[in-house]
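We include the entry.

. . .
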Amino acid sequence: MLLSVKNLSKKIGDKEILKNISFDVKAGECLALIGPNGAGKTSLFKHLLGQMQASSGSIRISNKEVSDISLKEEIAILGQENSVPKKLKVRELIEFCQTIYKNHLSLAEIDAILNFSSEQKNQLVSKLSGGQKRFLFFILSLIGKPKILFLDEPTSAMDTETRIRFWGIVNDLKSKGMTIIYSSHYIEEVEHTAERILVLNKGSLIKDTSPYALKSEDLEKEFTIPSKYLPLIKEIEFIKNLEIKKDNLVFNTKNADEIWNILKNSCSLNEIEIQNRTLLTAIFENTKEEK
């Protein structure tokens, strides 16, 4: 097992930010860590990187304690924020990062995935756009040829085209056997890229599953019907989150058949829109609301 977390807990004062978390990661897995803001995702990342010390439990990577200095050669991180050097050009920063590692990507290998023009490489890093900076720091995280790559909200600030390129590179890294653990607030990234999902909520690991299995767990149905049918449903106890809009009503329920029995004598099927609301959908909606 490449990474093993056993009964990991972290308490700061009276607040328990991580609660008895256990999971294993095999070499070559691509794993997404998701949950609402404040769930403990960044704290867990910091523990996995040895940046925070656990109150109890253990973390082992390549059968070594996470504090083992030799792991620096095996692990790379793209954090949510990166310090931007004000007076270094792009090519100078790349060359500096190469000097840190004995075994590093060549300039030709870096150019092939970075795809910056000569003009961009001679530009100050501080003058790049937000998305360009984010993509550059992603490439810098690969220079040391890590075995495990941690990506914390990696595509924030990237435009759609850059995000597509980014995930194309990630899929290529997956095919070559790199282990990747990332957090994301884009549901489509998790659905199309992760092989496993860890769901955190309030510091606890509540699910260790796959995107397919999680998406299949229908929590409830979301109904949209014309607003003229409000008198039929406003007193129903088993609907929730009722939104009364100008032209329609939106509400959720776990009792779809009962709702249809109430509506069918007055409302046609063409007037009803029904969508599945899954745990995966709910998690990402909550994350967006809290941003």
Remarks:
- The domain at 3-215 is CATH 3.40.50.300 (Rossmann fold).
- The longest strand covers residues 15-25.
